[in-house]
Automatic annotation (TrEMBL):
Protein name: Purine-cytosine permease
Keyword entries, A-Z: Membrane, Transmembrane, Transmembrane helix
Segments traversing the membrane: 58-82, 103-126, 146-164, 176-196, 221-240, 261-281, 304-325, 346-367, 373-394, 406-424, 430-450
InterPro entries referenced in this protein's UniProt entry, alphabetically: CodB
Coiled coil: none
Protein source organism: Reichenbachiella ulvae
Length: 455
C-alpha cells in the first residue's frame, strides 16, 4: 500500500525510481543554473574582496574549484545515484539504521535553517532600502534596529508560507524568478564595469590586482583558499551525497555534468559580478573613511544592487534571497518530518521557517557566510563518505538493509572525524575547507576497517 502511494505521488521516497519516470539531462541543467545563481551569490562575491584576494587567485582559483565540484557530482554523486535510485535518507537508513538517520536529519535541518536565515537577511537588506533601514555591518552579530527586526520577520513569514505550500509551489516560484535573477547579475556586472571605468581586460584584472590586506576580522585568501572553499561550498550536496535525491531521476550518470551550469553561471559569473558591485562601493568616500579608521564596511547586497541598477536591483536581491530560502526551508521541513512524523508537512515547514526567521535576525550568519558554508559542508560531507565507500568498496549495487536501527560504528566514525578535524582547525588555525577532504577520507577509511563485506 505504501509503495502504491509513492508511485502515485511521484516522490518514490522509499522505493527506487522506475525507468518510466527518469528525466533527461535538460531537466537538471535548468535546475542547477537557477539554484546556484541565487541569494548566496550576492554575499559571497563581495566577501571574496574582503579577504584581499588577488586577481589570479580569484579567477583561476574559482575556475579550478568549481571544476572539482562538477567532477565530484559527476563521478561520485551521480554515479551512486543511478545505481540505486534512492533518496539520500533512505540509502543512509539502509546502511546506518533509521534512528541514526534521525540524528543526521536534525543536524541537516538545523543547518538548512541557518542557511535560509542568512538569505532572509539578504532579502531584508533590499526590502529595507525604501524605509531607510540601517544596514548590518560586516562585524555585526545582533540586529541593529527595530526596522531590521520587523522587515526580517515579515520576509521570513512570506517565504515560510510559500515553502509550506509544497514542492510544486517552490519550484514554480523558482522557475519564474531564476531568469530574472540571472539577468540581474549580468546587468549589475556590466553597470559595475562601466562605473569602474573598465575598458580592457587589464583594467578588469587590476580591480583585484596583486591583492591587498584583508579587512578587519577577515583572513587573507590565497589561490588554495579559493580552490578548496569553492570546491566544498556545496560539499554536502556532492561528496556529502545530498543530491542523490536529485540524480536518482537521471537517465545516466552523465547528467552530473549539468552541474557545470550552476557552477559557472552562479558560482563563477555571479560571484564575480557581485564582487564588481562591491568594488564600486569600496571607492565611495564614506567607505574609504571607514577603512582608514579600521572599520569593516557593510556587504549588504540590497544597497549594492540598488546603486548599480536601481529598483530592479532591489527586486533581484529580494527574489535571489527567496530562491535560496524557499527550497532550503522546504528541505529543512522534510528533514524535521522524521522527528515529528505525526505533524503535517505544512506545519513542520512553518516550524522550520520560524527557526530560519529567528536565525535571520542575527546578521552574522550572512556576514560570515564564507565561514558558515565551510562549516556546513564540513559537518555533513563525511556522512557521504559512508555511502561512497559502501558502494565502491563493500556492497556495490547489492545494497542490503542494516540489521540495527542505530549503527553505533557509523555514528562514532562520523562524530570522531568531525570532532578531531574541527578541533584541529580551532587549535592550529588551519582553514576549515582544507580539512573537509581529509575528514571525508578518514571517515570512509574507518568505515572500511570496521566493516567486513556482507554476503
Amino acid at each position: 500500500m505504501e509503495e502504491n502511494k509513492e508511485i502515485q505521488s511521484g516522490e518514490f521516497e522509499r522505493t527506487p525510481v522506475p525507468q518510466s519516470k527518469l528525466k533527461s539531462w535538460k531537466s537538471f541543467l535548468g535546475m542547477y543554473a537557477g539554484e546556484h545563481a541565487a541569494g548566496t551569490e550576492f554575499v559571497i562575491g563581495p566577501l571574496f574582496l574582503t579577504t584581499g584576494v588577488s586577481a589570479f587567485d580569484l579567477i583561476v582559483g574559482l575556475f579550478v574549484g568549481n571544476l572539482l565540484a562538477v567532477l565530484s557530482w559527476r563521478f561520485l554523486t551521480a554515479e551512486v545515484a543511478v545505481k540505486h535510485r534512492l533518496t539520500l535518507y533512505y540509502q543512509l537508513e539502509k546502511i546506518c539504521g533509521p534512528k541514526l538517520v534521525t540524528v543526521y536529519n536534525l543536524a541537516n535541518g538545523v543547518l538548512f535553517c541557518f542557511l535560509a536565515g542568512s538569505m532572509i537577511t539578504v532579502s531584508a537588506t533590499a526590502v529595507g532600502i525604501p524605509f531607510d533601514m540601517e544596514m548590518p555591518k560586516l562585524t555585526d552579530t545582533l540586529p541593529n534596529s527595530i526596522t531590521f527586526v520587523i522587515i526580517v520577520i515579515l520576509v521570513g513569514l512570506v517565504i515560510s508560507v510559500i515553502a509550506a505550500r509544497g514542492y510544486d509551489t517552490v519550484t514554480k516560484a523558482a522557475n519564474w524568478m531564476s531568469p530574472v535573477i540571472v539577468c540581474g547579475f549580468v546587468a549589475a556586472g556590466i553597470v559595475a564595469l562601466v562605473q569602474l571605468e573598465v575598458h580592457s581586460f587589464s583594467d578588469f584584472w587590476n580591480i583585484w590586482g596583486e591583492g591587498s590586506d584583508p579587512f578587519p576580522g577577515q583572513i587573507k585568501y590565497t589561490i588554495w583558499h579559493v580552490i578548496f572553499w569553492s570546491w566544498f561550498a556545496n560539499g554536502a550536496m556532492h561528496i556529502g551525497m545530498s543530491d542523490l535525491s536529485v540524480f536518482r531521476f537521471a537517465k545516466s550518470a552523465n547528467a552530473g555534468w549539468t552541474t557545470s551550469a550552476g557552477m559557472y553561471v552562479g558560482h563563477y559569473m555571479a560571484w564575480i559580478a557581485a564582487a564588481l558591485l562591491y568594488a564600486v562601493y569600496l571607492k565611495s568616500p564614506e567607505v574609504q573613511q571607514l577603512l582608514q579608521s579600521g572599520t569593516a564596511p557593510s556587504v549588504a547586497p540590497g544597497p549594492l544592487a540598488y546603486n548599480a541598477i536601481g529598483f530592479f536591483g532591489i527586486i533581484v536581491v529580494v527574489l535571489a534571497g527567496w530562491t535560496t530560502a524557499n527550497p532550503t526551508i522546504y528541505r529543512a521541513g522534510l528533514a524535521f518530518q522524521s522527528l515529528l512524523p505525526k505533524t503535517s508537512t505544512f506545519w513542520v515547514t512553518i516550524i522550520a521557517g520560524s527557526v530560519a526567521t529567528i536565525a535571520g535576525l542575527f546578521p552574522a550568519f550572512a556576514m560570515k557566510l564564507l565561514d558558515f558554508v565551510s562549516l556546513y559542508g564540513f559537518i555533513l560531507a563525511p556522512m557521504g563518505a559512508i555511502i561512497v565507500f559502501d558502494h565502491f568498496f563493500i556492497n556495490g549495487s547489492n545494497l542490503k538493509a542494516c540489521k540495527t536501527s542505530f549503527n553505533v560504528k557509523v555514528f562514532l566514525i562520523w562524530t570522531l572525524s568531525a570532532v578531531v578535524f574541527y578541533g584541529l582547525s580551532l587549535s592550529t588555525g588551519i582553514f576549515l575547507s582544507y580539512l573537509t577532504l581529509p575528514a571525508w577520507l578518514v571517515c570512509g577509511v574507518l568505515y572500511l576497517t570496521v566493516n567486513k563485506k556482507r554476503s
